[in-house]
Amino acid sequence: MSRPKKKLSRTQAKAKPVENHATIKDITSSEHPHPSFSMQQMPAWIFVTLTSFGIAIAMVVLVIKMEIISNEHFWRSQEESFQFGCSDGQFIGQESPENSEQALKSDSICSAHEKQFESAELEGKVNIEQSPCRHPSKQSCQKVDKRQKLSLQEFREIYDGKWPVIITDVMSSWPALNWTIDFFKKKYGRSRVTMTTFANSVKSGFSVPLEVFLNHLHVSTETVWTYLQDELFLLQHPELKADIFGSIYTEQDLFQLFPAAVRPWDCMLLWGTAHSRSSLHIDPYNWTGTNAVISGLKRWKLLPPGQDKLLSIHPGANCGFPLECVKYNSALDLFDSAQLEAKPDLRYLEVDQGPGEMLFIPSGWFHQAYNVVPTLAVSGQVMNTNNYEVVLTEIFKGGSVQRSALPDSYEKMAPADVVRMLASHIPQHVLDEGERRTANALKQLYMPMP
């Protein structure tokens, strides 16, 4: 018997604050050995197997460290440059200070988007069924719809800017679905890519030849993993970008009205080992995010708006872009069971996304992705009629453009006209900085290898 359809109420979307914050613990630490185990009890074949695996992991870490050392000067000089355009994968390693409550109230994403979320007419239109989450307390959450043959009108009325949705037939004709590891090794193995490594509870960013990353794609654990996150790779290889088609759902993108110097890069290559993950975050400018899985399996946790106080957000952080915005990143890892147990009031949706499926993430939703197996994907973003006011609010918060640049009655103008007017008021020094950073990134990261 099917369960009755329910609407996520305002009280469900807001949870009470929880004060305790769990920390990540390295389960491989030798400080807590198993009390009943000794090496003498281990069969020889098990010892050899574990030793071989340990050597393989050690070699991966050694390669990573060598690449970090060889690129140390580069990363120091580019510390700010590579924040430009980042979406998936930014993180903050600090928790909110005790006096951050007022800052969270004033900068809460809830204030920018909650009204639109609450007014969404979901009941009777969306197939939302109660189902058990993988939460330790067995709380219930609601599913993300998987739809096909979805009309543009229904997408805009029900999902766009309101509720996450996975569309299963939008990628069916993409040549990118035929991409393979061997293809990338042969054609682009010596091209450098940006990536993140996680080891000993520390994240580090650096660049390596793509073949180095791919040679270790299947070597990872819960505590040692790598994640390729490169926003320029596909843009520098237009023959690859041509394998990725647009859709009716992303056709309207008002970011295209921005000057090229500050226009967000719209095609990010994501390739993660098993266990790799993004941070828990809202995308820059609070845009509508898209994520298309080409191979592998992603697991998502998505949080309805209004739960900022539970998420250990670092107050006052900025994106670091030339066209500045507020940065909404959480130190919380929802795929760490200890940290999740410490947040029993947290409400979230969970969904698995497979090859050929595209996820749309509305403005205002914190989200985190986890790669269950080695996973290749492409992410992007749009600003459209349903979210442009939210995006403009985030730009005003960043301070590069003042609210006074627009007339008081701008809400009566067509969205495209409003965005054009804002773009015309972007200061020249911001545009110059955007051009400088892009040119510097391309010069240093994508210079030909000897």
UniProtKB/TrEMBL annotation:
Top-level taxon of origin: Eukaryota
Biased composition range(s): Basic and acidic residues: 16-34
SUPFAM superfamilies the UniProt entry points to: Clavaminate synthase-like
Segments forming domain JmjC: 226-399
Pfam families: Cupin_8
Signal peptide location: none
Alphabetical UniProt keywords: Membrane, Transmembrane, Transmembrane helix
GO MF terms, alphabetically ordered: cis-regulatory region sequence-specific DNA binding
Start and end residues of each stretch annotated as Disordered: 1-35
Gene3D superfamilies tied to this protein: Cupin
TM annotation in the entry: 44-64
Gene Ontology cellular-component annotations: nucleus
PANTHER family: ARGININE DEMETHYLASE AND LYSYL-HYDROXYLASE JMJD, JMJC DOMAIN-CONTAINING PROTEIN 8
The protein's name: Bifunctional arginine demethylase and lysyl-hydroxylase jmjd6-like
Classification of source organism: Eukaryota, Metazoa, Spiralia, Lophotrochozoa, Mollusca
